[in-house]
Description:
This is ABC transporter. By secondary structure, the chain is α/β, with parallel strands linked by helices. It contains three helices and seven strands.
Amino acid sequence: MKTPLILIAMLPLAGCISFGAKPPPTLLTLTSASAVTVGQNQDSATTKSITIQVPVVPQSLATARVPVQATPTSIAYVTDAQWAEPPARLFARLVSDTVASRTGLVVLSTAQSIGDPGGLLGGELRTFGLDATTREAVVTFDASLTRVGKTSVEKHRFEARVPVSAIDAPSAAAGINQAANQVATEVADWIGR
């Protein structure tokens, strides 16, 4: 008899318990300005291939939140802004789409590349957020490339800065998307030369 009374007494408290932060009304993602044509066949037996790895990120980007460089030595996060998946994966997918469409290379996943000695693009996504001091979206990618048939590694830093009107979720999404596409295009052109 005591157990049902205890459960009934606890029922009003069930609505007060929260096991995590309230999610934002929408989640952010990236859209590619360059994409492979639907229905296009690609074959690594007849075309060179490349594997694009998910880049390494600093701890400030190892989260779904959007970082804001508030001062040279402090980082905050944009209120109500959250990525749909980790920024490194979003960026790797964007670069993959852009490289495939701009270079004609067959872009393979890490698992697919086991039996294919194609090129390899890796690197570190150093910045992927907003800079409050300059009011810009900033994407910085330190790329490392091993070309097909080579053993040497080429390195190159890419950065894009896009002005934003405000430090908020809509401005962050649009600005970072534009900056990421600019970097992805520059990376594809570098790979394709």
